[in-house]
Design goal:
The complex is a heterodimer of chains A (about 450) and B (about 675).
Chain A lengths: L2 H8 L3 H16 L9 E8 L21 H19 L3 E9 L7 H14 L7 E6 L6 H10 L3 E7 L3 H6 L6 H14 L4 E7 L6 H14 L3 E6 L7 H8 L7 H17 L3 E4 L2 E3 L6 H7 L4 E4 L4 E4 L10 E5 L3 H11 L3 E6 L2 H12 L6 E2 H7 L5 H5 L3 H8 L3 E3 L3 E4 L1 H5 L1 H18 L9
Parallel strand pairs in A: 1-2, 1-9, 2-3, 3-4, 4-5, 5-6
Antiparallel strand pairs in A: 6-8, 7-8, 10-11, 11-12, 13-15, 14-15
Helix pairs in contact in A: 3-4, 4-5, 5-7, 8-10, 13-18
Chain B lengths: L1 H14 L4 H6 L13 H12 L17 E8 L5 H11 L17 H6 L7 E8 L2 E8 L8 H9 L3 E7 L6 H12 L3 E7 L8 H12 L7 E2 L8 H11 L12 E10 L3 E10 L1 E3 L3 E4 L5 E3 L2 E5 L3 E4 L1 E3 L3 E5 L13 E4 L17 E7 L5 H13 L5 E7 L3 E8 L2 H15 L3 E3 L6 E5 L2 H7 L3 E4 L11 E16 L3 H10 L3 E7 L4 E9 L7 H8 L5 E12 L1 E8 L2 E2 L5 E4 L3 H15 L7 E7 L2 E8 L15 H16 L2 E3 L2 E3 L1 H8 L6
Parallel strand pairs in B: 1-3, 1-4, 4-5, 5-6
Antiparallel strand pairs in B: 2-3, 7-8, 7-16, 8-15, 9-14, 10-11, 10-16, 12-13, 12-15, 17-19, 17-20, 18-19, 21-22, 21-23, 23-25, 23-26, 24-25, 27-28, 27-29, 27-30, 30-31, 32-33
Helix pairs in contact in B: 1-3, 10-11, 15-17
Classes of the chains: A alpha/beta (about 450), B alpha+beta (about 675).
Chain lengths: ~450, ~675
């Protein structure tokens, strides 16, 4: 009964509605078992880019004569195979990521969506997101993607400063980005997201906040703020190592993040995750599923998935990775129907660790109900209620544990990775201390 | 016959690296491949052949006292002591004359690398001259005053020395230190100017230096090239002509000086002895004057340079003796051995080794503790001068507090651990043994002494309970080209040194003498001196007792809590500098935490240095979607695991690395 309040509050958000529906459905089915439900979301990876961005270490390739029809056939085949293997009946969202999926033809997007709809139930209002790069997405093309079934756009704007865009190796200018953004909003009103980066080398707080304010004049209901992380193997990393670029200042990045969060809050945005902000309930249900540890299938080179291969009779969730390199991946798909390269069964504790680490990234955190779905015999109170370390974090005002559940405070969210070290240790200790119980949820 | 044992020497050749100078400068020198698994292993091959009775036992009675000469070679590092020894061994047929004889007497890898002698080696040379058969005992000495006590014991078995000086480099600090040890022992000194074949050799100038510094006429200098063998024969003849035979009496009861001892895992302790009176043979019952323990002699013999058993050893002779001693501490250097029930007056000057430099030693990984323990035990079997106390650091785990004779001794010990036992260790910044003269009657009662030695800073008594504190001092000798004098004087002043003497040893070389507080030279003095003189200045020091010092105990605090591992005793004038350096080092190595960390150095209640580590303002992965989860979880779990091992000081978590960075021996430049 204590949970009613939480549920009511959550229902304001579209994502929470989905979660609630899922919960109700599971309740009807009997003992809830999210690790192996019959629902999942689908991620489709398009591995090609026009150009390498200086900060990106993702699995992407600069294409040389890509046979798109062949890639399309493989994406469709792999989606069909994995859907069958998972035994999933309902796909709640699809996300086309990359790479630069806006470089793919709308026909490819349509073919994948069609295959999903044929194999399972893909409700008409399911979120279908496409990542779009400003230069590769003129208005006409965006309209074609819409016709193919895309209903949400994530625009990789990154910066409104042309010098910064150059530093990042982007092919677009700030005005290109704003134009794309305007067209996207016209086509997908209320369902456009923009990315803005912070913490770039030599970037200062004031000008960056100026960019954010400028962006607020143009943006829709969803903004993601990403702090640049220098990744090994990128051009930016090398330049900083060699000293041709100053190393990003973590102090300044922290300040930008804090100020940025405040500005967005004032503008009516809810920070529903560490880097994600939405107003008017425009949360990404697809990404929400990751943080709620729902099932997801990954299709395409190097895509990750986490699901129970129920179609193969299994009851254990697996972490899966598809073959990275596109040509090899295609060969495998053609030979075996899928390019799954690695399958790692997730133990019960491992799954709980993910529930904890992912769930705390959200503003709702981990509700008692959510936790109970994964671990009925052990409540959040059992695990964290008596820990000295947790008590200190609560006293410092970084963490909250109450009738709703466990979540970060505003300040705590910014240092979550520090909090998680104590919380994960505490979870592990409790897990190993308790006598192994062959309970129904075990 | 000797070619068999020569196998060992050939291996030695492969190890003689030219990088001796670099290696000598510090622990960080190039690390050569492990040549032999154990120290004793290195020494075994020759020993096995020599004692297997392949040679007929030598009748030592053929050598009356007047045909015996006992001498040492003393020299600065790299001036050619070992090469000269090789030539002398070849000339007398002790070893085959091959190109492979390089530093035959330096058996340890570290000795060949650093061009120093750690363990003295001895060889008996048989030499025919003018129709007489001579027995010339070359008694090798450790080449550094860290081992000055051992040097002085080696010298006390001699009547003369060859003082080898490089014709190019001239007199160096160690030449001076060694000369005075020989001079004080009233030995005949034969100056030998070596390396006259070098392009820049200037033997005349060196002759003048010798005349000026040692007051030895230039006529007495022998100019040689040990490398080419030039004039080496005249060195042997000078030994016979200029060094007196030992004053020894065969008729008297046995009186033998132990001047070195080594440990052999199969035969126990092998004591090197010089007989001043009497004779000794297998089966004799002998007594150690120091321990009063009785032993039965199993074997006696001479060293040439491996053990060669003989029937007997006679007064005036030098050789070895095996008598069932299990531990080198039973055959301490300087001890006197005599026949059971025939006690004699022990040789004067015996003292137990006195450690002057202490350092903590810990395994890098605690799981290596037992391996390291056994390595330390094996090494100390051969070196009783290292003192070992078990120690336990909250941060670094179980380890030891080791006492060494000096800095080089410490470095050599560490290098041998690494090279011969493949052990990786954390060596903490060395400290010196301070003393406190107590005023508190309660404390005096507790310690049962008025003057106590403070090895561990935790024992440092409060100022209100002492009359005064004392610190060890050394008399340092620096020889340098005059252009560096200014810089060197500034360096010495910064090290609280007091100048005692300054003298030009030739037109542009100066010898400086300074009284140094020992703790001022234990960390990086030698490196600083070398670098500011482009490598030209040399330094050596000798023990000079204790002096009053204004010492204080300095605490390091993290958010107000004392870090026990980091308590240090410092001179009042140095507290600020040292405290600041420690705080800065901690600041660089302490990870940010969820709150601000104040790092403070304090003397009593007074804060003398402070640094701040700011709190984390942002520590969260920006992008965490489907593909990022595995990597993120792995990273988080590894960090959580690491965090469990952190030591907590109050609420501050301190990684082991931070302690290592602060405690480990390092330069402050």
């Amino acid at each position: 009964m204590a949970f009613l309040g939480a549920r009511a509050r959550c229902s304001a958000a579209a994502a929470a509605k989905v979660a609630q529906r899922r919960r109700l459905a599971e309740d009807a089915r009997g003992p809830p078992s999210p690790p192996g439900s019959q629902r999942a979301v689908l991620y489709v990876h398009w591995p090609y880019c026009e150009k390498r961005c200086s900060y990106c270490n993702f699995n992407k390739y600069i294409p040389r004569g890509v046979d798109e029809a062949a890639v399309r056939r493989c994406l469709v085949t792999e989606a069909q195979t994995l859907l069958r293997l998972s035994g999933v009946r309902r796909v709640e969202s699809v996300f086309f990521g990359g790479g630069t999926p806006s470089l793919a033809s709308p026909h490819t997007v349509a073919a994948v969506l069609e295959a999903v709809a044929q194999a399972t139930h893909l409700p008409a209002d399911s979120e279908v997101t496409l990542e779009a790069n400003p230069t590769s997405a003129p208005g006409s093309r965006l309209a074609a993607f819409k016709a193919a079934g895309v209903n949400r756009l994530s625009v990789g704007l990154q910066s409104l400063d042309d010098t910064e865009l150059q530093l990042l190796g982007r092919t677009h200018s700030a005005s290109d980005a704003l134009q794309t953004l305007a067209e996207a909003r016209r086509l997908f009103p209320g369902r456009v997201s923009v990315d803005l980066m912070l913490g770039l080398p030599a970037q200062q707080v004031g000008p960056w906040l100026g960019q954010l304010r400028e962006l607020l004049r143009h943006c829709d209901d969803h903004v993601s703020l990403y702090q640049l992380s220098l990744e090994r193997g990128t051009a930016l990393f090398t330049q900083v190592q060699q000293g041709t670029l100053p190393a990003p200042d973590p102090e300044l990045a922290a300040e930008m993040y804090q100020e940025g969060r405040a500005v967005l809050r004032e503008a009516g945005f809810r920070q529903y995750e560490v880097s994600n902000f939405a107003r008017n309930g425009a949360l990404s249900t697809h990404n929400w599923t990751y943080w709620q540890c729902g099932q997801y299938l990954g299709v395409g080179p190097g895509a990750h998935g986490r699901f129970v291969p129920q179609g193969a009779g299994s009851h254990t969730r697996e972490a899966r990775i598809q073959t990275l390199e596109p040509d090899n991946w295609m060969k495998e798909v053609m030979l075996f129907g899928h390019g799954t390269r690695k399958r790692v069964p997730l133990g019960e504790l491992e799954l709980l660790e993910e529930v904890l680490a992912m769930g705390l990234r959200t503003d709702v955190g981990i509700t008692h109900q959510h936790w109970q779905q994964f671990e009925p015999p052990l409540t959040l109170w059992d695990v964290f209620g008596t820990s000295r370390e947790v008590k200190m974090l609560l006293e410092q005002g970084l963490l909250l544990l109450d009738h709703r559940g466990l979540r970060c405070s505003w300040e705590g969210l910014a240092v979550l990775d520090s909090l998680l070290l104590d919380l994960l240790s505490q979870l592990q200790d409790t897990w190993w201390q308790r006598t192994p119980s062959p309970g129904p949820g075990g | 016959m000797w070619s068999l044992a020569g196998l060992g020497w050939r291996r030695g050749r492969a190890l003689a690296t030219p990088a001796t100078r670099a290696a000598r400068r510090g622990l960080l020198g190039p690390r050569p491949t492990l040549a032999c698994p154990t120290a004793t292993g290195c020494r075994d091959p020759g020993r096995r052949y020599s004692s297997a009775g392949r040679k007929e036992k030598i009748d030592m009675s053929r050598f009356p006292v007047e045909n015996i000469r006992n001498f040492s070679i003393i020299a600065h590092v790299d001036h050619g002591k070992s090469t000269l020894a090789d030539r002398l061994l070849e000339l007398t047929g002790t070893i085959d004359k091959t190109k492979n004889n390089k530093q035959v007497l330096d058996k340890l890898q570290v000795e060949r690398e650093r061009g120093i002698t750690v363990k003295a080696q001895t060889a008996s040379l048989f030499y025919n001259w003018e129709g007489k058969q001579y027995l010339l005992n070359l008694i090798d000495t450790p080449g550094h005053v860290d081992f000055s006590y051992e040097v002085s014991r080696s010298l006390s078995a001699c009547q003369g020395v060859l003082l080898v000086v490089d014709a190019n480099e001239g007199i160096q600090a160690q030449t001076v230190a060694n000369f005075f040890l020989a001079f004080e022992a009233q030995l005949s000194v034969i100056p030998v100017i070596n390396k006259i074949d070098l392009k820049n050799a200037d033997p005349e100038r060196v002759e003048k230096q010798i005349e000026k510094v040692f007051d030895i006429s230039s006529d007495e200098c022998i100019k040689i090239s040990a490398k080419l063998g030039t004039n080496v024969e005249s060195v042997l003849q000078a030994v016979i002509k200029r060094i007196p035979s030992p004053k020894a009496h065969q008729k008297n009861p046995l009186r033998a000086l132990v001047f070195d001892s080594t440990f052999d895992q199969y035969r126990g302790v092998i004591a090197n002895v010089a007989l001043f009176d009497g004779a000794v043979s297998k089966g004799d019952k002998i007594v150690s004057a120091h321990t009063q323990k009785t032993y039965e002699v199993n074997e006696v013999g001479v060293l040439n340079p491996n053990e060669q058993p003989t029937h007997k050893l006679y007064a005036g002779q030098v050789g070895y003796l095996i008598a069932g001693m299990k531990d080198v501490s039973e055959a301490q250097i300087g001890d006197t051995l005599y026949l059971h029930k025939q006690p004699v007056e022990p040789m004067p000057g015996f003292k137990s080794a006195k450690p002057m430099v202490f350092a903590g030693m810990y395994p890098v990984d605690q799981s290596e503790y037992n391996n390291l323990k056994s390595a330390v035990e094996k090494l100390t079997l051969n070196d009783s001068s290292v003192t070992v106390h078990r120690d336990n650091s909250l941060a670094l785990g179980a380890g030891w507090r080791l006492g060494f004779l000096g800095l080089l001794h410490m470095e050599v010990f560490n290098q041998r651990l690494e090279q011969e036992y493949n052990a990786s260790v954390i060596l903490t910044t060395p400290t010196v043994p301070y003393k406190a003269v107590l005023s508190s009657t309660k404390l005096i009662k507790e310690y049962r002494e008025k003057e106590i030695i403070i090895i561990n800073p935790a024992q440092f008594p409060d100022k209100s309970k002492v009359v005064e504190y004392l610190e060890p001092v050394v008399l340092g000798t620096i020889i340098t080209p005059d252009e560096y004098i200014g810089k060197i004087m500034m360096l010495c002043q910064a090290r609280r040194a007091v100048q005692k003497n300054m003298m030009f040893i030739d037109q542009n070389r100066v010898m400086l003498k300074y009284l140094f507080p020992l703790n001022e030279i234990v960390v990086d003095f030698y490196d600083s001196l070398k670098s500011l003189s482009s490598g030209y200045a040399s330094f050596d020091y000798e023990d000079a007792g204790y002096q009053t010092a204004e010492l204080v105990k300095m605490d390091i605090l993290l958010n107000g809590n004392i870090v026990e591992e980091l308590v240090t005793v410092v001179h009042k004038d140095k507290a600020h500098t040292v405290g600041k350096a420690i705080c800065e080092r901690l600041k660089d190595s302490l990870p940010r935490q969820l709150f601000e960390i104040a790092i403070q150095a304090a003397v009593g209640s007074k804060i003398i240095a402070r640094e701040t580590v700011k709190a984390y303002r942002k520590n969260v992965l920006a992008k965490c979607y489907g593909g990022d989860i595995t990597r993120k979880m792995k990273l988080l779990k590894r960090q959580a695991e690491g965090k469990k091992k952190l030591r907590k000081v109050g609420n501050v978590e301190v990684p082991k690395d931070a302690f290592i960075k602060v405690l480990r021996t390092q330069s402050d430049k």
